[in-house]
Amino acid sequence: MELHNLKPAKGATHKKKRIARGEGSGHGGTAGKGHKGMKARSGATSTKGFEGGQTPLQRRLPKFGFRNINRIDYKEINLDLLTSYSEKYQTAEFNPEVFSSHKIFNASDRIKILGRGEISKAIKVKVHACTASAKSKIEAAGGSVDLI
SS in 3 state form for 7-21? Predict the structure, then answer.
């Protein structure tokens, strides 16, 4: 065997389909596009949501809703979860860096403490928002809440 007599394995190559090159090719006539209609024409592409001229679903349905661009979204955490994280991670101080390092929240998230549950030991919390009930429970346990 030498370079000049190398050839691909049997069945490894395929003959190119010669579309619209006469009836003898098997792909002549309509060139595999069927008969007439938009998709048989040259350059025929349909836009997303096109329904053949019928009013598209997206235009038939009414508009609704409102999204306030000034809204501030907070990621909430309750006191019962905060106490369990305090025991799990052996820390008495929580701030956005601590939350992100333990993959509880992302570094860019705004955090709000909610008042569900009880807290027994003093913890220091530095967050973006806190409910009045959560703040009073944390301070009653000897902790502190600082707002960023």
Answer: CCCCCCCCCCCCCCC
